[in-house]
Design brief:
alpha+beta; 14 helices; 11% strand; three-stranded antiparallel sheet; disordered N terminus; Glycosyltransferase
Length: 453
């Protein structure tokens, strides 16, 4: 594993030409273990365009988004999301997730991911309500937001999936490596703060401290009731103000986020116990059970003869029926370990959300898929197409998702944020590393399973 120094300029995809990987010396970071995986999977893909898509997407995070620092004993890795030079807890976890299975094969890659965990822990301690952070303490472009902005915070949108992502990466690394190296006193401080914040945002003892308003912001940035969110009856789920899309929630209790959070709490509990945080491990287990019980009680609805999960609820009987492309989404739940692929409620929900009943599912002449209010009507997201492939129950459905991804990258050989379902040349965000990691991971798995030969 080799990496650039911290002052190297990022190699930016432009979206106006096919992506060519930077020369090895110009890559932000390089892992021989990942290069071997890319070569092995590419060698099992017959279609040259799908092969090139894999070769562009799977290593894209390493190629373009990594800034390493710190020391060998205490590494520090900052991961930009792509064309916004800030680090999201959610995005950075998804960006490096496909690399976890190689940490035992590459000490440098192991150090890089330990650096991500260490950086995330410090970000959580800086502000557990923030979703995105800066590399330094320069003023954020959102410094005028009416919330408690702190130096080093890029954006302070309270999205419980941010803390879910921190817990998930920590547990995922521990399972993959067997190492406790990153889980030092700083990590334990962050873990305890996560639990306290989640308990406060269950709001069982009254409203929490968070509020958010953005002067002159878009409608998707406006949190109701003076920045505190719509009324609820607290039920054990964790309240949030924003969705994984960074759009304001309609109702504060997001169902897929809470289910993914419960899974992350389950996953981190044994890690916490291994670090000596036995009280925290017990608290994580209890919180996960509270969330699942509340979802089962308040977040399902009968539709068309089946029971499905709502997307958002308020505990008062209000429900929002939809799915959003950004994960955690209802579609993504098995991929996040939040339910079994064959769970009857999941299967009924999946059928519903991959149909015109979901107001954010679109069919066009080029593709069909789930989109988001974040990008507007008639735009599908490669993230959702990749999740459809990763959660498919048949090879035929997995291949259908892959073919759509191969047909909609607009000749760039990278994944984008969204694209027009009738004209994929109309897309948003040419450099969106989270989507690239998901697409690359799907293509690698399908290739190794022999589906693309």
């Amino acid at each position: 594993m080799s990496s650039s120094n911290a002052d190297r300029r990022f190699h930016r995809p432009t979206g106006s030409e096919p992506w060519e990987r930077p020369a090895p010396a110009d890559r932000c970071a390089r892992s021989e273990a990942i290069e071997r995986r890319v070569a092995a999977a590419a060698g099992r893909i017959a279609d040259p365009d799908l092969r090139r898509l894999l070769e562009g997407t799977l290593p894209n995070t390493l190629d373009t988004t990594i800034v390493e620092g710190g020391t060998p004993e205490r590494p520090d890795t900052f991961v930009v999301t792509g064309d916004i030079e800030a680090m999201w807890l959610r995005d950075s976890t998804a960006q490096v997730w496909p690399y976890l299975s190689s940490v035992r094969d590459d000490p440098g890659l192991d150090r890089l991911i330990r650096g991500v965990i260490g950086r995330q822990a410090r970000q959580v301690v800086l502000d557990p309500y923030a979703n995105a952070f800066l590399a330094g303490e320069d003023p954020s472009e959102w410094a005028r937001d009416e919330t408690e902005m702190r130096p080093g915070v890029h954006e302070r949108k309270w999205e419980p999936d941010s803390l879910q992502a921190f817990l998930r990466l920590s547990a995922g690394y521990w399972r993959a490596s067997g190492s406790l190296l990153p889980f030092d006193a700083a990590w334990r401080d962050a873990f305890r703060l996560v639990l306290r914040t989640l308990r406060v945002e269950q709001r069982l003892e009254g409203a929490g401290p968070y509020r958010f308003e953005r002067p002159d912001g878009d409608a998707t940035d406006r949190v109701p009731r003076g920045g505190r969110g719509a009324p609820t009856r607290p039920n054990g789920m964790v309240h949030g103000a924003f969705r994984p899309s960074d759009d304001a929630s309609t109702l504060p209790l997001n169902v897929p986020v809470n289910l993914a959070l419960a899974a992350a709490l389950d996953g981190v509990a044994p890690l916490a116990a291994a670090t000596g945080e036995r009280a925290g491990a017990t608290a994580a287990d209890t919180l996960g059970r509270d969330i699942r019980a509340a979802v089962a009680r308040d977040a399902t609805v009968r539709v068309g003869g089946g029971t499905i999960w709502a997307y958002e609820v308020d505990g008062l009987g209000g429900r929002v029926l939809m799915d959003d492309a950004n994960a955690p989404s209802l579609l993504s739940l098995p991929a996040l370990g939040a339910c079994a692929p064959g769970d009857p409620t999941y299967l009924a929900t999946r059928r519903w959300l991959l149909s015109p009943a979901n107001p954010w599912w679109f069919r066009g002449t080029a593709a069909d898929g789930v989109g988001s209010p974040h990008t507007g009507p008639r735009r599908a997201w490669p993230i959702a197409l990749a999740m459809r492939g990763l959660t498919a129950s048949s090879d035929a459905e997995r291949l259908a998702a892959i073919r759509q991804l191969g047909a909609t990258h607009a000749g760039t050989f990278l994944a984008h944020e969204s694209f027009d379902v009738d004209d994929p040349r109309q897309f948003t965000r040419p450099w969106f590393a989270w989507a690239n990691s998901l697409v690359g991971g799907l293509l690698e798995r399908a290739a190794l399973d022999g589906l693309l030969a």
